[in-house]
Amino acid sequence: MEQLREEYGADLEVRDxxxxxxxxxxxxxxxxSCADSAGLAAREWQTMPIIIVLPGMAIAAAAMVxxxxxxxxxxxxxxxxxxxxxxxxxxxxxxxLADVRSKARQTR
Length: 108
Fold this sequence. Notes:
The chain has five helices and three strands, in the order H-H-H-E-H-E-E-H. With 108 residues, the chain is an alpha+beta fold. It has one domain (2-105). The chain has a three-stranded mixed beta sheet with strand order 1-2-3. Helix 2 (27-36) crosses helix 4.
């Protein structure tokens, strides 16, 4: 996450939210619990700049984006991770999902 601090400022606050899902249980409540564990108040969800590293499982990532959009009122920015040297993940890019949505609306 040092790459993100370099690009977005040294005071970038990083919250490590552990995502361990039980596939035998309903997914939505688990995603709510993961978002809750970030420890942000409602106002913080709506006012803080937030960049998310999504869970790797597609259905969990989709559910997380929906949950965060509901809390934030807009789509978050998400991190695309790449495999770097020594099997360490590095930031490939930060994708602004709100911008992706806005551009897609032009094709309607």
